[in-house]
Write a structure and sequence with these properties.
Layout lengths: L1 H10 L8 E5 L12 H13 L7 E6 L3 H11 L8 E3 L2 H8 L15 E6 L5 E6 L22 H10 L1 E2 L5 E2 H10 L3 H15 L14
């Protein structure tokens, strides 16, 4: 949010209009912070209303969960062809969430709408995208799209052009962020071993024979 605000204040006609902000996970807030969901939606929509073009470009990438599992099943059975976009309307949500009330799905947590996209190279991606105005999810169904999401086309184009094989259905920006944040496997193993030894009290020096402990 801070970088988006900075670009809006200082370069809304240039850098902001040519930058895509990716979130590792959906555009959503859970638990106590969910009270701020509506504020986030309103904040960025006000930013969009005062920015040339369709910026800011905001997208969350969901990598696991029921929606992702459903999307992969569709791709596995060729229900989704490369380049296809599935709008997750009430009928789709009812099937995935196993709910009799799909019209109220997500209205307390999400400030972006989920779509299912199969990229041109066959990857399956579940992006969440913010609508230009109004709530993505609301009582009565919200905005299934895609008409209310002017940034969607540009976001899907970036997804098509930034595929990564570092993890299943990956995209380069998220994979690169993981690479910067993660411990190398050797270092990570050493750290976990050290923590485990301390928790088990095994990090004390072993006394030499003939000496009291």
């Amino acid at each position: 949010m801070g970088l988006t605000t900075l670009l809006w204040e200082q370069s809304r006609g240039d850098l902001l209009a040519s930058t895509l902000f990716l979130v590792d996970g959906p555009l959503a807030m859970y638990g106590e912070p969910a009270k701020l969901r509506g504020r986030a939606e309103t904040y960025f929509q006000a930013m969009a209303a005062t920015t040339p073009g369709n910026a800011p470009y905001l997208c969350g990438i969901e990598k696991s969960g029921a929606m992702v599992d459903y999307a992969r099943q569709l791709a596995r059975h060729d229900v989704l062809a490369p380049g296809d976009l599935l709008v997750c309307d009430a009928a789709v949500i009812a099937r995935i969430a196993n709910t009799a009330d799909p019209a109220n799905y997500g209205k307390e947590t999400y400030w972006g709408r989920k779509f299912i996209y199969r990229s041109l190279d066959g990857r399956v991606v579940v992006p969440t995208v913010m609508p230009a105005a109004g709530p993505a999810y609301a009582a009565g169904g919200g905005q299934p799209g895609p008409d209310g999401y002017p940034t969607l086309g540009a976001i899907l184009d970036v997804i098509d052009r930034t595929g990564s094989s570092m993890y299943r259905d990956g995209i380069i920006p998220v994979a690169a962020a993981h690479g910067k944040a993660a411990f190398p496997i050797g270092v990570g193993t050493d750290v976990l071993r050290l923590v485990a030894r301390r928790k088990l009290g095994m990090d004390q020096p072993t006394p030499s024979p003939g000496r009291p402990a």
